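ok so for the tutorial part 2 we go from a plain amino acid sequence to predicted structure tokens. step 1 is just haveing the sequence, like this:
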Amino acid sequence: MGQKKPTLRQAKAEAMRYLKILNNDGVHIRSAYLFGSFADGRQRTDSDLDLLVSLAGFKNWIEAGGYLHRKLAGFHSRFNMDIIAHSKPRLDAGIPLEGEVLKKGIRLM
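step 2 — the prediction. this is what the tokens look like for a chain of 109 residues:
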């Protein structure tokens, strides 16, 4: 018998567990969104967990992204996770994915 597909509730719980690690580091999370297949109900057993995270206190989105990925490297999850560092300049530059996530994603923080 095949695996049951994971639920949105499970994905949210796993995302919050990752975000708690950032909070415990003393990092201020401005916002965090779950997007992709879990946000629109298309998840499968092999779906990854997609997060867009906006952090305060970093020079730019590249620095923030590096931090997020270093934390992800030590995080053990049942899901493969894709993390994107969000920044207002990227949104203002018209990066389509970020605008789409803000409209259709599920805000976690």
